[in-house]
Amino acid sequence: MNGERFFNESSPYQFDMNSALKQPGYLEATIWNEESMDDEHLKQYHTLGCSRLGFSGIFNAEQAREQVKINVEAGLLKKADTIEELAKQLHLPVDNLKKTIKRYSDLAHQGQDEDFGKESFRLVPLDKGPYYGAILGGRLLATFDGLRINSNMQVICEDGSAIEGLYAAGNCSGGFFWGSYPDRVPGLAASHADTFGRLAGKNAAE
Length: 206
Fold this sequence. Notes:
There is one protein chain. About 15% of the residues are buried. The strands form 2 sheets. Strands 1-3-2 form a 3-stranded antiparallel β-sheet. It has a two-stranded antiparallel sheet with strand order 4-5. By secondary structure, the chain is an alpha+beta fold. Helix 4 (about 85-90) packs across helix 5 (about 95-110). The protein has helices spanning about 15-20, 40-45, 60-75, 85-90, 95-110, 190-205, and strands spanning about 25-35, 80, 130-135, 155, 160-165. It contains 6 helices and 5 strands; from the N terminus they run H-E-H-H-E-H-H-E-E-E-H. Strand 4 (about 155) and strand 5 (about 160-165) form a beta hairpin.
């Protein structure tokens, strides 16, 4: 919201959220241009897990571009021919944003992010419009510390005794992620819920 980069945009989700906590209003502005959405660049980014295009339930490139268009029409995203115009629409400091975009583009042309270490294959110059932008906010990604359970998926008291008839699975059961969400392991949360849910159901039935 200060019109400045504040972290490596290619970092895992929790790095983004932790960095955004130190920004005004816990908010951040995401900015890109038309060129960065073409098929060649989207393939070049090599996104993984649930951010991967074509991943089950996730848009392909054409659908993603169509959704951007729909969101612009709905006012959720802003579109402008110049950075100055986009900054005004997003209520960002114009001069700061112009400097930031120029610096980022220079680093992209150079092929090395000297400021935050973003991989070179994910650096795309923002030399020309049209430009797009959105204000994002979030404080919670996943539950890291839910109810404590034993090996039978039974919820336990502070003294370690099981609470009769109460079971928990998935992110409702604490300690599995141990304070960090490893988004480089696609499907971990889903498989955790499936496996622990099956065990909870089996033990409850018995």
